[in-house]
Amino acid sequence: MTDGGGYTAHRYRGQDGLSLYYRDYAPAAGRRPPSLPAILCLAGLSRNSKDFHEPATRFAARGFRVICPDYRGRGQSARDPRPANYAPPAYLEDIRHLLTLLGLHRVIVVGTSLGGLLAMGMGATLPAALAGAVLNDVGPEIPQKAIARIRAYLAARPVFPSWQAAAAYLKAASPHAADGSAAFWLRQASMTFRENPAGEIVCDWDINLLRNFGTAPVPPVWPLFRSLAAIPLLTLRGACSDLLTGETLARMAAEIPAMAQAVIPGAGHAPTLTEPQSIAALDAFLDRFDG
Question: What is the pLDDT of residue 141?
């Protein structure tokens, strides 16, 4: 179905029959060479396809087809009655299923946080499907303090009387942003929460995500990161991020010297990909495919 926002909205069935949602941004007319890979945008842990609307619109204008799925339990995808499925193996299987359904044999993954970890997982389990990868503020080693912060954020389950109140909450919870305007935080709220039938603003994810997140330390996954060594790779880091540290980024560059990187001033976890520095880094990276 057509949304009118530059994409078409679709549903498909996961391998277990769960109803899942994705956005499909068509490339600008006449701009897509036959060999150009599609871009697969993978969001953070509690995030969804709305995060990528602005970047996806830019990518499509360059001639890329862009696919932005909602993971199970997020956004417009169904909530899973089996919370044990809120884990990377199920997400990777959903991604494999979606790529097969769409006939996409090679994709560039733009992955924020969890999405970047899934890109690493694809490098190990679906290497032939990866044409390139962008890791947005995530690496193969995550400090436990950052995990505890995210878990506390997810556990809060706030309910707001208005979008303005939701925006104020986000601003307080995430003080680091390259753009701190009121319009920015309202936009972030619209991508984070939803309005329920009672008119309240509530979380747009299943609270059961917590069952499999943050209860134990996250082990380093350097072997998965190294699986990306043979493809074009870009890593972005928010200068104020607590999830991807400067030390981890430096080790990533030592492990894969060909990796491009950019640090986004003023941004925390995670850059929105709308910052001028993010746009410049992404444009230079995509020039390798359509230049």
Answer: 97
